[in-house]
Amino acid sequence: MSTRSAGKWVGLLVAGFLAGTAHAGGVFLYEFGTTDVGYASAGYAARADSPATLLTNPAGMTRLDGIQLGGGLELVYANLTFAPDSATTVSGNNGGNAVGFLPNGSLFATFAPWSDFRVGFGVASNFGLAAKWDDNWVGRYYVTQAALVGLSILPSVAWHIAGGLSVGVTFNVMFGYLKDTVAVRNLEPNATDGALGLQSTAWGVGANVGLMYEFTKGSRLGILYTSPVNLSFGGTPNFHGLGPILTQKLAASGLATATINAGLTVPQTVMLSFFQALNQQWALMADVGWNNWAAFGTVELGVTNADTQHSLTTHIGYLNTWHGALGAQVQLSEPWELDFGVAYDSAMTNAQTRTLALPIGDAWRIGIGTKWALNSNWTLGFAYEFLWGGSPSVYQSRGTAGTVSGSYNNTYFNFFVFNFAWKGG
């Protein structure tokens, strides 16, 4: 982090560059336009029934023959609305629904050049979301607009070692985009707000490593490890509409042209999944997983009159999270399959670390989906998932940003997915 000494009035605190959303205990998504949505992620690393396995467990590609394509389109509708309480000292409204509609999707392909060797390639986004609050909401001095998106390019290889054992590696080349905007309270009497923003892009590289063991044709265990991906966001803050007093103080402190190095880490994860076919119609599956959100980084932008440490960043102690899921699939008839599942993720924040930009609590998912085998080559599917994020409370109080207290009441997300799979020779 590079900065110059600051004056008494001004400290830039950076603590939360991402949208307030509740996924996988953070912003790591199990939903990226595939059949996983219908299972609420159950069997994530063990189903291996489509080319999307190159992301969820690359070792599962050894179960796919010939040339196969798969992917889908996803539409997300969410409710993230703040309800301030009597402890709030900032005037303004509730911010409106900060998320609303968001699109997503993915595309995957796998190839079988030799009997025990597979290669694949995919493009998907399973990290980040975006949110925008009203300009005049009570939390505007902490966040007004935030976006964090990771788009992954995924070359992949897999090898059937012997018996039921396979191993696979997918390289995760991630392009990251970050944008954060916050209102700034000017110091002149009755002055309108100014604004502070940061926009940045970065590249990072990681890997997904998978193992799969098939006890029988209908019974298998999958283990997935995803490495951390470091995204070195940074840049010079962009100020708009500042009054003369604050402009002078920022210039004198050197903060107006200081460089913000807002690097963050997409967390490493571990997932253990099991798939068991009970008969020709029914199959059950389960997951348990861990996400290393404690290594995530620092995320929120704002101007205060802090007289203590004059740094452009501050560290937030996020929590590691746990995941569990149960699901099933039923072969209703020759062309039709029904999928369903339920999942739980613990939160990456608690009452001490939760912020207006990160109102994350525990998350429950319920998913249902169907697949239709159109012919021997094409399968079409539709899936829906409901994510319940509860009503996480937030209390923030900091210098000229004021005190904002309340809760994000009844947060939820709806995922609608249309997906397809094609099998060639």
If classified by CATH, what would the architecture be?
Beta Barrel
Structural class: mainly beta
- What are the secondary-structure elements, in order, as H or E? EHEEEEEEEEEEEHEEEEEEEEEEEE
CATH level 1 class label: Mainly Beta
User: What is the tally of helical segments?
Assistant: 2
Unreliable runs:
1-26, 304-314
Distance between the ends: 54 Å
**Biggest β-sheet strands, sense, barrel:** 14 strands, antiparallel, barrel
Residues in β-strands, percent: over 45%
- Total number of beta strands: 24
> CATH superfamily name?
Outer membrane protein transport protein (OMPP1/FadL/TodX)
Shape: elongated
Report mean pLDDT, rounded to a whole number. 86
By CATH, the topology is Porin
Query: Roughly how many Å is the radius of gyration?
Result: 23 Å
DSSP helix fraction: under 10%
How is this structure best described in words?
The chain has one domain (11-423): Porin, CATH 2.40.160.60. It contains 2 helices and 24 strands. The chain has helices at residues 53-56, 244-253, and strands at residues 11-12, 68-79, 82-84, 100-114, 117-132, 145-162, 165-184, 194-216, 219-226, 229-231, 234-235, 238-240, 260-261, 264-266, 269-277, 282-291, 303-304, 321-331, 336-345, 363-373, 378-390, 393-398, 402-408, 411-423. The strands form 5 sheets. The protein has a 14-stranded antiparallel barrel. The longest helix has 10 residues, at 244-253. The N and C termini lie far apart (54 Å). Residues 1-26 and 304-314 have low confidence and may be disordered.
